[in-house]
Hints:
Blueprint: H1 2-30, H2 35-69, H3 74-91, E1 97-101, E2 111-116, E3 122-128, H4 131-139, H5 143-168, E4 178-182, H6 185-192, H7 197-205, E5 207-210, H8 212-294
Parallel strand pairs: 3-4, 4-5
Antiparallel strand pairs: 1-2, 2-3
Helix pairs in contact: 1-2, 3-8, 4-5, 5-7
Amino acid sequence: xxxxxxLLSLIFILVILIYLLFSIKNKETSDKGGNNxxxxxxxEVSNDIHKIxxxxxxxxxxxxxxxxxxxGNVTTGRLGEWSMESIVQDIxxxxxxxxxxxxxxxxxxxxxxxITTAEGFIVPIDSKFYAGQYQSYQSAGSDTERKKxxxxxxxAVLRDADDISKKYILQNTxxxxxxxxxxxxxxxxxxxKIDDLRQxxxxxxxxxxxxxxxxxxxxxxxxxxxxxxxxxxxxxxxxKVVRGIQKEFSNFDSSTEDVVKRLDGALKDVQKLQTRxxxxxxKLEKGAESLEEEN
Length: 295
């Protein structure tokens, strides 16, 4: 569409230039004494044409770059990875994810991202960007062409789902599914136009298809799990401290009871001693009184 607009603009500009040239020619015919003025006008027109050509070149270059970028090559894949990395970094704790992760030590394959859950399982994520199919769907001129594009997209998605599930699902290490991330809600809309594609990928390929919005929601649930895990760890530490304090109080209470028992025993001993002292004192008083009477 953009290329057509550029072509129309060029045609319009050329028409204007031709009109100006004919005008100048006519003026030259009617006024032969103004050759120098006509030459100056032609030079100005030539300079304007050269400037227009440079401006068009400066516009065409970024358009060509954009078309190349959206053509389904490696650079387009990086766009999906950048989108995924941004979402993961915004939501997940720093120690819970890894980019370009080698999940299987016996393989050199690397997932675009691995997420570690609170339970310690790894969730592999691989990013795909089906820009070629999207562009073909948008430029399709009939329902037949659009249906063909959707069939091609279905084949590509199923192929990628099968590939990443075989590469990254590892028993007792990863989750029982992998995530196929598609970095465009418009592309997700195309996927949703294909009947049962999501269900088929999940049931037969163990692959969950997520777009930017659903990936963010999915990661947020995992982040909450990490949050509760930290709360549980903190609660366990607090409980341990409380149990230690309780034990110390129990020991202190036992020691206090022993001290009270000893004090009670000492008090009884003092009371017995006081009784003995009192008896002895009474005897001494009576003996003293007997001596006084004899005298």
